[in-house]
Design goal:
The complex is a heterodimer.
Chain A: H1 2-17, H2 19-53, E1 57-61, H3 65-74, E2 79-83, H4 85-98, E3 103-106, H5 111-116, E4 128-130, H6 136-162, H7 185-223, H8 226-230, H9 236-274, H10 287-313, H11 318-341, H12 356-366, H13 372-398, H14 400-403
Parallel strand pairs in A: 1-2, 1-3
Antiparallel strand pairs in A: 3-4
Helix pairs in contact in A: 1-9, 2-9, 7-9, 7-10, 7-11, 7-12, 9-10, 9-13, 10-11, 10-12, 10-13, 11-12
Chain B: E1 2-12, H1 15-20, E2 27-38, E3 43-47, H2 54-61, E4 69-74, E5 77-78, H3 83-89, E6 90-93, H4 105-115, H5 120-133, H6 149-160, E7 167-171, H7 179-194, E8 198-203, H8 206-212, E9 215-220, E10 223-228, H9 230-237, H10 242-253
Parallel strand pairs in B: 3-8, 3-9, 6-7, 7-8
Antiparallel strand pairs in B: 1-2, 1-4, 4-5, 9-10
Magnesium ion binds at residues 54-55, 171 of chain B.
Chain lengths: 405, 257
């Protein structure tokens, strides 16, 4: 017991004494995360502003007089290019393709006459629009003009034709209903966060533990300081546990910091991505949720620490250990991604797959959808697996082939 | 007391090691049927050329590696069945064991003191004594990485003796030290012997072995080829100087390759 405590204390002291280590474990990732988030934020906001400021370039063939008047009356500013003939239409299409123009509206040649002289049974004139979905300006122009302005234009023409529109409006849908969205705000917020959080927790936790674990075990072997522990009377198992626990503490602590930063930054992100103020995503957690999350995070940190420690024991140098650990990191990344995009019903057996089940349960806790059985299975399995790996590490520590060559 | 009975250590070489030593044989016999006994109150020296198997023997005693054959008893405790008990009895020093560069000497000293369950007041006393003797006070609060080779060696010696072990095993303790520092180390080993402790050292420096050791075991190619006091070795080989005696034994026992 005392051996574990001494080793633990030394490892923790080693990390916190080293300013560079503290910086790279605790601050650097946070700084990077905040920088990336604010860059994304600015870029998205800048993009939206830019599209708003851009005056759509609209090519119109056979523009009816009433359309021009309609635009002027509605005070809509477009850069209109009137075209006629096949050749100019080709040119307009090419312009849309290369971004010089945003939208092409093609009226039938006899549009004005057709609608003015419309009688029951006549063919209804068709207006065609063309745009380029890969160009942001073009997409925006299509959304605004083809779906908005033309619709308004049609309403205006209709009014001209039949006078009072209310006669033909049988009913409207949601023109005056602010409360149309019914959802548990907390659950919705949890769901959105629940989608991303397990992913970030898994990678951040693993990434944090990775560098430290490699240094703590392979690095210590490489530097020759492990041997000094091996000739002291501490049990091999105490060395292993002391190291695994300290790794767990530090990586857990660092991931906790990342999560706090993320939860604080999340509304900011949502705001810029959806244009809403982000307050719709209420992320207040109940005491029970926090407890469940906390306990699960502790055992996940334990499992990750043992995985990393086990891989590092078999490496002679830190470089070798980093190479060995990469494929494991990939697996963790993929598992995280799988849970992030997994939707619909999760098969029951998924809760028995180690690593994957913890990510599922994390997600479930945040979305308030996890059952006690699922939680306990994932929890127990993670502890048992971590314990088994610890046993393997101790075995490796007892092997001279592994420890001194 | 250290009793080594028919110790054999065979390393399994990996491909890289086989290539480096230009051999196709994956087995390397580093220690071959070695038997010796070292007692309380004496300085026993293992003398042998590079690669003779001195370090290997000492590492087996210190339970860092396991014997392939034979037994080793340290104060009656067997290395394979009671490794932790053996490690409590000994202070072990070798150049491959290093102190954590990030910490200062004082931290390391206290850390290993606690690992050895040295009570706080005793630890303080040990620290006074060893830091004073080896002149560590001046750099006790410097990080290990800022120390010179000699300072590091002194720190390592002090740390290995923190628990006042009955048996002191030092692998080439004066390696890399200037004569003044080397002298203070050998003087300290004599002091330990005079206090009734067992000191086991390895060396390939003839003059050191001649002056320091009460008994010498000469090891060549993993086998003990002669043992005794300096005078006994002179008598055995008909020489009057350890270097001559050593060459004589080396000539007779070198394995044909
Ligand atoms: N871990 C190891 N794996 C394989 N072979 C080893 C290992 N350690 C030592 N050897 C080999 O065993 C033999 C004995 O080595 P050892 O280090 O015991 O010699 P030594 O007497 O201490 O030599 P030196 O005076 O150079 O320190 C050498 O041939 C060495 O190459
Ligand atoms: Mg050696």
């Amino acid at each position: 017991m005392s051996g574990i405590r001494q080793i633990y204390g030394k490892e923790i002291a080693r990390i916190f004494r080293d300013k560079r280590m503290v910086f790279s474990v605790f601050f650097l990732p946070v700084v990077i995360m905040v920088v990336i988030m604010s860059i994304m934020n600015n870029l998205i906001a800048g993009m939206e502003d830019d599209i708003e400021r851009h005056t759509p370039v609209v090519c119109i063939s056979n523009e009816p007089e009433s359309f021009g008047e309609f635009l002027k009356a509605a005070d809509l500013q477009y850069e209109i290019k009137n075209i006629s003939g096949e050749k100019e239409k080709r040119q307009a299409e090419a312009d849309i393709l290369n971004g010089a123009a945003d939208l092409l509206i093609e009226f039938p040649e006899t549009f004005q006459a057709d609608i003015e002289g419309y009688a029951d049974g006549d063919a209804i004139p068709q207006v065609k629009t063309y745009y380029n979905p890969s160009e942001d300006y073009s997409s925006a122009a299509y959304a605004e003009i083809s779906e908005g302005t033309l619709e308004a234009y049609r309403q205006a023409l209709l009014q001209e034709r039949i006078g009072n529109l209310e006669q033909v409006t049988v009913f409207t849908v949601n023109t005056d209903n602010e409360d149309m969205i019914i959802q548990d705000e907390q659950k919705a917020g949890g769901k959105a966060i629940g989608m991303m959080l397990p992913y970030f927790i898994t990678i951040l936790l693993f990434a944090g533990a990775m560098g430290l674990g490699v240094d703590m075990i392979a690095g210590e072997k490489e530097r020759g300081t492990m041997a000094s522990l091996l000739v002291s009377p501490v049990k091999r198992s105490s060395i292993v546990l002391g190291k695994v626990f300290s790794l767990m503490t530090v990586s857990g602590l660092s991931s906790l910091i990342y999560i706090i930063v993320m939860v604080v930054c999340m509304p900011m992100m949502m705001e810029s991505m959806t244009g809403t103020d982000g307050t719709g995503l209420d992320i207040s957690l109940s005491a029970k949720q926090i407890l469940m999350l906390g306990a699960l995070l502790v055992v996940i940190a334990f499992l990750y620490s043992t995985i990393i420690a086990l891989v590092s024991v078999f490496a002679r140098t830190m470089k070798e250990a980093s190479t060995y650990i990469m494929p494991v990191y990939m697996v963790v990344l993929v598992v995280g991604l799988l849970t992030m995009f997994a939707s619909g019903k999760t098969a029951g057996y998924s809760y028995y797959i180690p690593l994957y089940n913890t990510a599922l349960v994390l997600k479930g806790i945040l979305a308030q959808e996890v059952t006690a059985a699922q939680y306990l299975i994932a929890f127990a399995e993670t502890v048992l697996l971590g314990g088994a790996l610890t046993g393997l590490i101790v075995k490796a520590f007892e092997s001279e082939k592994v420890m001194s060559s | 007391m250290i009793e080594i009975r028919n110790l054999t250590k065979i390393y399994k070489l990996n491909r890289k090691q086989m290539r480096e030593s230009r051999t196709k044989n994956p087995l390397k016999t580093a220690v071959d049927d070695l038997t010796l006994t070292a007692r309380k109150g004496e300085i026993y020296g293992l003398l042998g050329p590079n690669g003779a198997g001195k370090t290997t023997t000492l590492r087996c005693i210190a339970t860092i590696i396991k014997p392939t054959g034979g037994e080793i008893y340290v104060n009656g405790k067997e290395v394979r069945s009671q490794p932790e008990a053996v490690r409590t009895e000994i202070g072990f020093l070798t150049s491959e064991i290093k102190l954590d560069e990030q910490f200062d000497v004082d931290y390391m000293f206290r850390f290993f003191g606690r690992l050895h369950h040295v009570p706080a007041d005793v630890l303080k006393q040990r620290r006074e004594e060893l830091f004073e003797y080896f002149g560590i006070r001046d750099f006790a609060h410097k990080q290990i990485k800022e120390l010179s080779t000699g300072m590091k060696q002194k720190a390592a010696i002090a740390v290995s003796l923190v628990h006042d072990p009955d048996i002191v095993i030092f692998d080439e303790p004066t390696n890399g030290l200037d004569i003044i520092t080397a002298r203070s180390v050998t003087d300290y080993l004599r002091k330990l012997r005079d206090e009734g402790k067992l000191v086991l050292v390895s060396t390939h420096i003839m003059s050191e072995a001649e002056k320091l050791c009460d008994r010498i075991g000469i090891i060549i190619d993993g086998r003990k080829v002669a043992e005794g006091t300096v005078e006994q070795l002179y008598a055995q080989t008909g020489t009057g100087d350890l270097e001559d005696a050593f060459f004589e034994l080396y000539r007779m026992n070198r394995r044909e390759e």
